[in-house]
Structure formats: structure tokens, C-alpha cells
Amino acid sequence: MHPEPTPVSGAGAPRLECRRCGAGFPLGPRFEGCPECRDDSGAAPLEVRYDYDWHRDHGTLAEWRSRPPALWSYRELLPLPGAVEPVSLVEGGTPLVRLDVEGPGTLWAKDETRNPTGAFKDRFHAVSVSMARHLGFAKVTSSTTGNHGTSLAAYAARAGLRCLVFADPGAPEVQRDLIALFGAGLVVMRSRRDQLAWLVRERGWYPSTGLVPWPVATPYGIEGYKTIGHEIYFQLGARMPARVVCPTSGGDVLYGPWRGFLELRSLGADGPLPAMHAAQADGCDPIVRAYRAGAREVPVHPAPDTIALSIGDETAASYTMDAIYDSGGAATSASDERLIEGMRLLARHGIAAEPSSAASVAAAVEMARRGEIADGEDVVCVITGAAVKWPSAVALAAARGPLPQDEPDAVRAWLEAFDRAG
Ligand SMILES: *Cc1c(COP(=O)(O)O)cnc(C)c1O
Ligand SMILES: [Zn+2]
């Protein structure tokens, strides 16, 4: 029932490897991390490793350069075997937009709102659900504050798989409705892990959750996030940016692209790797606290309180801290007011992003103010998700004034004033 993926012709087979002890396993339905390293502190994640030497020797990087930026353009380093049709809604290939902001360096927005369900999560589920179907699963599940679940429901629908989403009570009504519209089952509850793990362990469901086994997860979804790194590199003209700023919650959003940059280097790309920066909200900033303390383990943030629910996880994975330290990055948070200002800054460029996504812009502006960005640096803000799925935040940021009465004289008077005000 579970076929073993075959490698790209000529290359050695990709395998799962433990980040902690290096133990290797064939690709397959492994959702509990490394069996050797499982202890009281939880499981160590497994991640996919490829035959980088073969790809360096066979010009995979040059081949990629000739392809348009898009998730499946980089499938030599994705876990789905080359001959297997992916589950796709045409994800990735998102624009890299130069932002008109004064100051040192050049600020860019990697506009992930342009993905099929309006969030970078589509890269995750494109790969994860493709693997679920390839491995013979008929049922997929996940846990979400909104975007992750809406995305999974869409990909499950396209794949013809059953789907069950566990959603946080803060998930907006419109996302609950979208999940239902895509035909998925929905359970709204605060503490979701045990129920999800039960479905996976006892009922044969595939967990399309993040990389950390908490207690179950998939090693395959985060592979899709690597392609954010790949695309940025090629969109800058085969050049590494100086810094990448990611609105970070559990941390896959930062660790995934970081692995993408590392892999580019394994394939022969040169230039210093970018510094990876985590952007959080003041009301939920466990990564910032860990960073200030120089810690690898992220403390649990008591009672998160921010409008940026998508980056509201009370803790994060230690490998995210590794990526921040190894890359020479940092962590910065912003108040909800500054997130709203970030939304307005993006809106002036025609991009409607949710408050969580604006955290990257708020952090970059703050870094520039503190003198942490040098002349000539390319700073890329990942704009993770679209505003439309968070209507109450759109209303806050829009701060719309009263409209004229629907009456000709009132409209004419209003138009006169509006015209003069321009
Ligand atoms: C999920 C999400 C994030 C954070 O991603 P993690 O991988 O959990 O750190 C950031 N922004 C948006 C819009 C998201 O949906
Ligand atoms: Zn191990």
C-alpha cells in the first residue's frame, strides 16, 4: 500500500535523516520523528536529504536557472518521484516586488498572497498532499489558526482525498466556511493535538502538519517552503539576498527557505548565505525572547495577545533558532499598531496582506531605523498571506470614513470635496 519513492534517474535515492543523530530511513509514512531520539523532551524531526553531489555534477542549478520560478520547477529536490503527477493548484512563482521605502538597502516583498488560497501554506500542502496520495493515503488532517487548514482543504479536494481540519477558536468565519466549501470536516477546539494524533495513529489519517512531531507531523510539507528560497535567488538574478525577514510562528516559514538557500549552495551557488530574521508581534514574541537570551529552546509565551493570529503560536521549534544563529540573523517584534501600518505600506503598493504578514515589513523598517541594514543590501520580506481571509483586520487597517448618502445632491457635494482634497 505504501510504494517507495524512486529517485531522479541517476541520482541516489532521497532519504529521511534525523537532524539530531543522523540516522537514515527510506521515504515513507514516518510521522513520529526519529525512533532513536524519541525521549521525554519529544521527538527529533526527520528531514529529507538528497544526492547533492550528483546534482552538482549534473548541472541541476543551471537547469533550474532556465526554468520559470514555480514550485515544481525545483522538483529534483522535492520528495515526490519525477514520474508521479503532483497534486497542484499552480502554486509558487510569486512576484518579488520592490518596495518604495526610503533608507539603506533595497526592500523587497516576496508576495506569497498570490498563491491559490492566498498563503504560502499552499507550497506546503502541494508537496505534502502529493506525498500523501503517492504513499496511498485516502484521508488527510491538520491543525490550523486558519490559513493552513483552508489550504489543506483545497489541496485535498483537488486530490480527491477526505479531509478533516482542527481549527483554533480564533479562526475567522470566512475560513471556516472556505474549509467547509472545499468539502472538509471541521472541528473547532483549543487543544487539538491529542485528537489529531488519535486519527493518525488509530485511524490511518495522514498528518499534513508542520515538521515538528507534536506528537505527529509530516517531513514532506516543509520541502515545499524551500522553493521560496529558490525563487528569491533566481528572481534576484542568481544572487543571494543579504537578509530574509519571515513572519514567524512555529518557524517552518523561516527554516524552510533557509534550507532552500543551503541546498542552492550544495548545488554550487556561491555568495554568502542570507541572514534569516524572525518577525513577531509584541503580544506573542517567544522567539524574540529566546534570541535575546541566546537560547536554542524557545520558552512558552504566556497568554498570547495580538491581532496577528497566524503568528500566534506560543512557542517555536529549536531548529528555527539554529537557522537564525547559523545565518547571523536576529528576531524583532512589533506592536499591533505597527502591523497595521505595515499593512498600509503594502497596500500603497497594491498588496493586501494580513497583519501577520505585515510583521516582516514592520521588522525591516525597525531594523533600518536601528541602523542594522547596510547600504546595498537586498532585504526580502516574505509576505505570507492575503488580507481577504481576515476581514476584521482589513476593516481596522482601512479605517474607512463615512460614505455620502445615496442622494444626488449629497453625492455631488461629497465629490466636490473629494476632488479638491486630491
Ligand atoms: C502559518 C503562517 C505563518 C507562520 O508560519 P510558521 O511556519 O508556523 O512559522 C506566518 N504568516 C502566515 C500568513 C501564516 O499563515
Ligand atoms: Zn535521531
Describe this structure in words.
With 422 residues, this protein is an alpha/beta fold. Helix content is 37%, strand content 14%. It has 14 helices and 13 strands. A six-stranded mixed sheet has the order 4-5-13-10-11-12, with helices on both faces. Helix 3 packs parallel to helix 4, helix 8 crosses helix 10 and helix 11 crosses helix 13. The longest helix is centred in the middle third of the chain and has 15 residues. The radius of gyration is 22 Å and the shape is globular. The chain starts with 14 loop residues before the first strand and ends with a helix. It binds pyridoxal-5'-phosphate and zinc ion (ZN). The site of zinc ion (ZN) has 8 residues, from loops.
Q: What is the strand arrangement across the widest sheet?
A: 4-5-13-10-11-12
N-to-C series of helices and strands:
EEEHHEEHEHEHEHEHEHEHHEHHEHH
**DSSP helical segment count:** 14
Report, as a whole number of angstroms, the end-to-end distance. 66 Å
**Helical/strand content category:** alpha/beta
Rounded average pLDDT = 95
Low-confidence stretches: none
Query: Helix amount, in percent?
Result: 25-40%
Which ions and ligands are bound to the chains? pyridoxal-5'-phosphate, zinc ion
